[in-house]
Here is the input.
Amino acid sequence: MLSRELNAATAKPAILAILAGGESYGYEIIRKVHALSEERIEWAEGALYPLLHRLEQEGLVESVVRSADNGRKRKYYRLKAKGKAHLAFQQKQWSVASSLLTKLWGPGPCLT
Here is the structure.
């Protein structure tokens, strides 16, 4: 389980990365994060949707309402060009942070 702060810090780049793979709807994003984290990260819908709306307001993603296979309406989100550029920026930032921590902690488990 991630701390609240780390969970919040990783949510935006994680969502952008998921949407870089193709459009998705909220519950599907939650399931992908849960699966990709090997069930160690679990997001609530109540936390995800405000972030998706914020990403829309920032012009990083856009949404479209469509009928799903079961006939219900779903809001699908997709990455915009500005979102792709922001994701590339985020990847560089996280790469620097990851590299630093890997060097500080070394290849083995943290023993402190």
In short: Strands lie at 24-25, 61-67, 73-79. The chain has four helices and three strands.
